[in-house]
Write a structure and sequence with these properties.
Blueprint: E1 10-11, H1 12-19, H2 23-31, E2 38-39, E3 45-47, H3 49-64, H4 69-98
Length: 120
């Protein structure tokens, strides 16, 4: 399964049909910061496949699990944070597996100790 695309493709009416809800619902979700569609030069909302997946996730949380929109916001932020942490863990795991050659080279540190001749 390939990851969903971030490319903005769908007008609000098409996105609403894809997730089977009213366009005004999508506007509400945007106003609440639950989804952030791209806007073109004419200020028209364009939704990506990733946005559609997020809208479906919002619907599952609200309709199937009974979570209110404030709770959805918390859940989505936590899921985003988990995704970022997983990416960071994957990156670090790859660096460890590839050994020192993939790590940045250590730079020599020069420490100068200055002695004070005060008081002599």
């Amino acid at each position: 399964m390939r990851p969903p695309s971030y490319e903005p493709l769908y007008y609000i009416s098409v996105a609403a049909r894809l997730v089977e809800c009213h366009p005004q619902t999508l506007r509400t979700y945007e106003r609440l910061g639950l989804v952030a569609p791209v806007r073109n030069d004419s200020n028209v909302r364009l939704y990506s496949d990733r946005d559609i997946e997020r809208l479906r996730q919002i619907q599952r949380l609200t309709q199937e699990m009974g979570v209110n929109l404030a709770g959805v916001d918390v859940v989505l932020k936590l899921l985003d944070q988990i995704e970022q942490l997983q990416s960071e863990a994957d990156r670090l795991r790859e660096q460890i597996e590839n050994g020192p050659k993939s790590l940045p080279a250590a730079q020599p540190v020069r420490i100068e100790i200055q002695t004070s001749s005060e008081g002599q």
